[in-house]
């Protein structure tokens, strides 16, 4: 059922048809982009679960057999992400290998990654945020180095990605936030560190973990509203003034008073 739901929304992006959904737009936009780049023309109706795709080129979005295509590719990335995270935290190769082995043969993970769903995209950004956070923590002895900035910025990018797919991404924002508070509290208690240097640490985290994710999250909606410029099933959820901007709407180009 969910594949019918999100596959249809991928088609809406390809056809630039406006719709409304409870989830933020990033996951559906990426599904639509994957379908577009792989040759899908957005014409499959996605009417009910189990409908045959026939001649429609859906493989780029789903990737049942071509396991490196989008959802399946992102799902497969969870294995190295988990391996690297556990290796960084435990410094134990057997523990990291065991973690990767468990995920490789996890039926739920394999199944979720076979279909046009938001779940593998969400898990990709969730685990990416955790891995980036752990890697950034490992660079604590060399603050403001290139690698430190890279992992800190990548953490912010992944936070925006997780929030941009589903609001469940707030939980990883909470995790990174608590880790950051602990880190800053530890730095504040370091008597060898000047207040100026502490201010730089604080500013760096505000820029990379608050400003950057918010800017990216806002940009997703800017792209969403720019691409979906044709009248569709989501028109009625918005004001008359907004509907007047949608091509094909009854109110298109009508002057709407403030």
UniProtKB/TrEMBL annotation:
One of its GO terms (biological process) is protein O-linked glycosylation. PANTHER family: DOLICHYL-PHOSPHATE-MANNOSE--PROTEIN MANNOSYLTRANSFERASE, PROTEIN O-MANNOSYL-TRANSFERASE 2. Pathway: Protein modification; protein glycosylation. GO terms for molecular function: mannosyltransferase activity. It is a multi-pass membrane protein. Residues 1-229 form the ArnT-like N-terminal domain. This is Protein O-mannosyl-transferase 2. Pfam families: PMT (PF02366). Keywords: Glycosyltransferase, Membrane, Transferase, Transmembrane, Transmembrane helix. It comes from the Eukaryota. It comes from Tachuris rubrigastra. GO terms for cellular component: endomembrane system; membrane. Its main location: membrane. It is found in: Endomembrane system. The chain crosses the membrane at residues 66-86, 92-109, 149-182, 202-227. Belongs to the glycosyltransferase 39 family.
């Amino acid at each position: 059922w969910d594949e019918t739901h999100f596959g249809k929304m991928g088609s809406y992006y390809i056809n630039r048809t406006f719709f409304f959904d409870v989830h933020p737009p990033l996951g559906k936009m990426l599904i639509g982009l994957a379908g577009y780049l792989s040759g899908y023309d957005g014409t499959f109706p996605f009417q009910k679960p189990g409908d045959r795709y026939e001649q429609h080129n859906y493989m780029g979005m789903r990737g049942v057999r071509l396991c490196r295509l989008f959802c399946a590719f992102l799902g497969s990335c969870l294995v190295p992400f988990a391996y690297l995270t556990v290796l960084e935290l435990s410094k134990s190769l057997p523990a990291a290998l065991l973690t990767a082995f468990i995920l490789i043969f996890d039926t739920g993970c394999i199944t979720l990654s076979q279909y046009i769903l938001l779940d593998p995209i969400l898990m990709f950004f969730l685990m990416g945020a955790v891995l980036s956070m752990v890697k950034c923590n490992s660079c604590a002895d060399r603050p403001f180095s290139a690698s430190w900035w890279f992992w800190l910025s990548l953490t912010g990018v992944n936070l925006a990605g997780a929030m941009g797919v589903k609001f469940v991404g707030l939980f990883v924002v909470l995790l990174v936030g608590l880790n950051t508070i602990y880190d800053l509290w530890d730095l504040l208690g370091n008597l060898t560190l000047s207040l100026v240097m502490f201010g730089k640490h604080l500013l760096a985290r505000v820029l990379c973990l608050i400003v950057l994710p918010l800017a990216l999250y806002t940009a997703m909606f800017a792209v969403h509203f720019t691409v979906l410029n044709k009248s569709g099933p989501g028109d009625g959820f918005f004001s008359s003034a907004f509907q007047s901007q949608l091509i094909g709407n009854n109110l298109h180009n009508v002057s709407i008073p403030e």
